[in-house]
Design a protein that fits this description.
The protein is mainly α and about 550 residues long. It has 19 helices and eleven strands.
């Protein structure tokens, strides 16, 4: 499919579209009537404005919302990184990292306005235009797309804040400043009910729809949103009584996706194909955020010492220690718990292939482009190590999502398209396994089709992975499952939320291990202490919002 036919390629196109101007003044010729009588610059732009909120700094190089640096996955190399506020005590209602709140309610307000005023659309004057029938066909989908997006943003709010105001109509300023928080269970019900009502009206793919505008809401994305929402709702943070019915609902929703995957054209891909130039067309991808060709992410994450590299989110030793060896399933941390002499051999040899696809270690050739390829040195005094300012604080650099073919030199730069995963099939094998285990109490129960172990092994048996199968049950299964989820979904913005919904922040986030590699190539571990408080399970509501609306109760502890 030619890119010039894809209006929504990874939503980057949305950001370049001017907003439908709804500032109705005498000086402005684009009044409300105009907006609803013009398709491209009016009606469609309003829908695009809602899509645009899906991509609001989510994966910017120095954004608090590339969340790996606030987990045991990574440390952000530069102290100025906004993500460090989550771990250094700089987080508060006065400094709340409010992007999720702001973008979500902006999108919801825009969706509510359009859904209420859709009856105003009148394209009758354009009925002889060659594109008229195409416009009408697209407009039939817009209400369902907007309802999906509204539900998606309510999930974002529920995940971050728990109870949030549930608003489905346009509000005056006075009304907006008097809303109260709706219980999280009711927000979850709203999301699930919306999906159940709209999913049948959305296409499985836009390949045969007018304009073939990939990136828009699909039936599959809607069911993925439902399944993920129910998993969160069943998790300890939202289900303290461990109501099995909630786990059963999550298991059924995940099973529905797995059972229909082939029918919908989905299948597990090679792990290495989940990112890179062509990832937007990967058959495992359910919904992704794309960007046009760029090397900004590479500049942010190439190692110090690579021209224009800034280190970015550097994988921790805590993460590396979770990768298992292919031969026996023993983890790197179990086998190499003490000091490691890197001169004596390669302790990383034989690790889970996902390690080499995710992490750049000392001695690797990186990046892969010919003009910048070099052997990476993360030992003390090495070319890519301290005491250089901004060098990795962990002993490692990030490879996953980073396109090594990008060139970041001052001249002759090379850029590539990027795709950030929102939903992919692999996640739902893991979601399914977790839900089934908790619903049945066994990793080998087949009530819902696959057992939990069989679902996890679908990922581990991929041709480019081939890791020892899961056979455990009970607490041993939980421990290994949490490790597998970390490894499989590393740097896909799951870990930050998973540990919170499990209520295991004190276990995983209060400290992280990093690798100290001496000039003599001796690797030892040191521990970086971090600030953790149980109130961090939920975001603080921005102080500015509570000042405007005292009816908004602050989250506990904030």
């Amino acid at each position: 499919m030619k890119l010039d036919k894809i209006c929504l390629f990874i939503l980057a196109g949305l950001l370049s579209v001017s907003c439908a101007d709804l500032n109705y003044t005498e000086e402005n010729t684009r009044d409300e009537d105009w907006t609803y009588e013009y398709y491209g610059e009016g009606i469609k732009n309003m829908v695009f404005d809602v899509y645009a909120q899906v991509y609001t700094q989510e994966f910017e190089s120095n954004s608090a919302y590339f969340l790996a640096g606030a987990t045991d996955e990574a440390m952000y190399a530069l102290e100025t990184g906004a993500v460090n506020n989550y771990v250094n005590g700089g987080w508060s209602p006065a400094n709340p990292n409010p992007t999720i709140w702001n973008k979500s309610y902006t999108a919801i307000a825009e969706a509510n306005m359009y859904l209420e005023k859709i009856h105003k659309t009148d394209l009758s004057e354009w009925e002889h235009n060659a594109n008229y029938q195409n416009w009408i066909a697209q407009m039939e989908l817009f209400p369902y797309e907007l309802r999906f997006l509204r539900a998606y943003f309510y999930f974002e709010l529920f995940r971050a804040y728990g109870d949030v105001p549930l608003v489905t109509t346009t509000l005056t300023n006075a009304q907006a400043n008097s809303v109260t928080r709706t219980p999280a269970a009711d927000v979850v019900k709203f999301i699930v009910d919306e999906v159940d009502e709209i999913a049948s009206h959305l296409p499985v793919s836009y390949s045969t729809e007018v304009g073939a505008e990939y990136g828009r809401a699909t039936k599959v994305a809607a069911y993925a949103l439902k399944a993920r929402t129910l998993l969160y709702a069943a998790s300890p943070l939202h289900n303290p009584s461990n109501d099995k019915a909630k786990w059963e609902a999550a298991a059924q929703a995940c099973a529905f996706i797995i059972d229909h995957a082939s029918e919908w054209g989905l299948k597990l891909s090679k792990y290495a194909d989940l990112w890179g130039e062509n990832a937007f067309w990967n058959q495992e991808l359910i919904w992704g955020i794309g960007r046009n060709a760029s090397n900004a992410f590479e500049m942010a994450h190439y190692p110090i010492g690579v021209e224009n590299g800034s280190s970015g989110n550097c994988p921790t030793q805590s993460l590396v220690d979770q990768y298992e060896y292919q031969a026996d399933g023993v983890t790197f941390g179990e086998r190499n718990s003490g000091s490691i002499d890197l001169n004596a051999g390669d302790p990383y040899e034989g690790l889970d292939p996902r390690f080499a696809l995710t992490v750049v270690k000392n001695g690797d050739e990186w990046p892969t482009n010919g003009s910048q390829k070099k052997v990476i040195e993360t030992f003390e005094g090495g070319f890519n190590a301290s005491p250089k300012y901004g060098a990795t604080p962990t002993g490692y650099y990030l490879k996953k999502y980073v396109d090594g073919s990008c060139v970041t030199t001052a001249d002759n730069q090379v850029t590539r398209r990027h795709t950030w995963i929102v939903f992919r099939l692999g996640e739902f094998y893991l979601d399914y396994a977790e839900a089934v285990y908790n619903a049945t109490g066994s990793a080998n129960d087949k009530t819902y089709g696959l057992s939990a172990n069989e679902a996890v092994n679908m990922l581990r048996n991929r041709a480019d992975i081939m890791m020892p199968e899961f056979t455990e049950d009970g607490e041993a299964w939980v421990e290994r499952y949490e490790r597998e989820r970390l490894v499989e979904l590393a740097f896909e913005n799951h870990r930050f939320w998973d540990v919170r919904r499990w209520k295991k922040g004190a276990e995983y986030f209060s400290e992280v291990a990093v690798a100290d590699i001496s000039a003599e190539r001796q690797l030892t571990r040191s521990v970086e202490k971090r600030t953790w408080d149980e109130k961090f399970n939920f975001f603080p509501i921005p102080e500015t919002e509570i000042k405007k609306n005292p009816a908004l109760d602050q989250n506990p502890g904030w």
